[in-house]
Amino acid sequence: MTSSKLNQFLNENLEDLKSQGLYNEIDPVKGANGPIIHVNGKDLINLSSNNYLGLATDARLKNVAKQAIDSHGVGAGAVRTINGTLDLHLKLEEKLAQFKGTEAAIAYQSGFNCNMAAISAVMDKNDAILSDELNHASIIDGCRLSKAKIIRVNHSDMEDLRQKAKEAVESGLYNKIMIITDGVFSMDGDVAKLPEIVEIAEEFDLMTYVDDAHGSGVLGKGAGTVKHFGLQDKVDFQIGTLSKAIGVVGGYVAGKQNLIDWLKVRSRPFLFSTSLTPADVAASTAAIDLLMESSELQEKLWENSEYLKKGLSALGFDIGHSETPITPCIIGDEKTTQQFSKRLNEEGVYAKSIVFPTVPKGTGRVRNMPTAAHTKDMLDQALAIYEKVGKEMNLI
Ligand SMILES: *Cc1c(COP(=O)(O)O)cnc(C)c1O
Questions:
Q1: What pLDDT does residue 22 have?
Q2: Which domains does the chain have, with CATH numbers?
């Protein structure tokens, strides 16, 4: 017999979510995740992936992955410290350090895992973390796991950050203090004010931690937000993912050699979870090679995102203040946003609605993620559908 308490808990809460319209039905995609996806029997223009450069289906990377399976098998066989560190892992880490302009780097199984790993390897209950209120869920969870005092900072509010940094330092309550931020904020597409953050960190001698999941491959000629601002020497922790622009799966921390040495002996997802597969590692290394050799894909990504943004603006949509390819189309009311996304889908555009509690109440939006793999024709079709549905629902 299964637990009646568990059943009661699950049934009540699932019903509650469903009655509020907050239960997320997940759409299975048939075939690859590209600029066109096949969902529920239909081909849709995909504006919902994080596959910024289209590398998830790149023929060169597929070949490299297949070769790695032939030479190294499908699994790494163990956690890194036992005997799961393959030559391929070391090659990837060397490449990552070069790419990021740091002394060293360490790879993890995901970007989420990086935040589970790195924060708690360094911070503890005697420390404090100044955390932007819009930071990614994995940053929030990583901070909680560390047991450090979490001090929430108003989004990108440098006055607030300076004030709270000053208070934390002057309180004398904490051993170490860290400022932690997304490089690019994923719901609005705005970029962290890293030059000012670094200035405040230097003023009060604080650590800096930038999770650049949405910036790597996109900003700074591909190397990310920190490089974009020329701050490679001034940010202690650079976190990145191999799952978005790089197109594969995995994550990494780049920084000084002593930081990486420490993470290799003290970060728990590295010590207690099996390492990335040979195919993932080889494909990621090849993807970074591509990014370092040419900026063609980034240029295409930016060109496509400018095109989509101009088109949506011209139609009369509110696209917010994004500074990156992330293109929100802000509708406001939650129910209307969901209905809008549903109608777009019926007409051939796959763009998900994002509503409270992921974004503040009354700022529901459909978020568009153009990629380098979209053609002008696909974007024109998407814009025509936006126009049709927008007019039909009296939104423009
Ligand atoms: C997407 C994202 C992650 C998670 O990365 P995965 O590699 O998908 O686990 C972590 N941090 C931020 C800021 C993200 O946007």
A1: 76
A2: 21-50+295-392 (3.90.1150.10), 59-293 (3.40.640.10)
Q: Which of 51, 110, 119, 138 should be mutated for ligand 1, with most atoms under 8 A from CB?
A: 138
Mean pLDDT of the chain: 96
The residue written with tokens 């549905």 in the block is 389
CA 235/CA 208 separation, integer angstroms = 5
Provide the pairing of β-strand 36-39 with 42-46: antiparallel
Q: Dump strand ranges (E) for 183-313.
A: 207-211, 237-241, 251-255
Among 169, 190, 171, residue whose Cα is nearest residue 181: 190
Contacts of residue 209, defined as CB under 8 A and 6 or more positions apart, other chains included, come to 118, 119, 178, 179, 180, 181, 235, 236, 237, 239
Helix (H, G, I), strand (E, B) or coil at 117: helix
**161 three-class SS:** helix
**Any idea which residue has 């601002």 for tokens?**
229
Our answer on whether the CB atom of 110 is closer than 6 Å to any ligand 1 atom is yes
Backbone region of residue 145 per phi and psi (left: phi > 0; alpha: psi in -120 to 50; beta: other values): alpha
Is the beta carbon of 237 within 6 A of some atom in ligand 1? no
Instruction: Give the contacts of 238 (CB within 8 A, at least 6 positions apart).
Output: 100, 102, 210, 212, 224, 226, 232, 253, 254, 255
Is the pLDDT assigned to residue 21 strictly greater than 80?
no
pLDDT confidence tier of residue 164, bands split at 50, 70 and 90: very high
Q: Is the pLDDT of residue 285 over 90?
A: yes
User: What is the spatial distance between Cα 152 and Cα 131, in angstroms, rounded to a whole number?
Assistant: 5
Angle subtended at Cα 320 by Cα 224 and Cα 379, rounded to the nearest 5 degrees: 75
> In this structure, are residues 138 and 115 in contact, taking their beta carbons and an 8 Å threshold?
yes
Q: How far is the CA of 119 from the centre of ligand 1 (A)?
A: 15
CB of residue 138 inside a 6 A radius of ligand 1: yes
Distance CA 164, CA 288 (A): 38
- Using the predicted structure, report yes or no on whether residue 367 has a pLDDT greater than 90: yes
Q: What is the pLDDT of residue 356?
A: 85
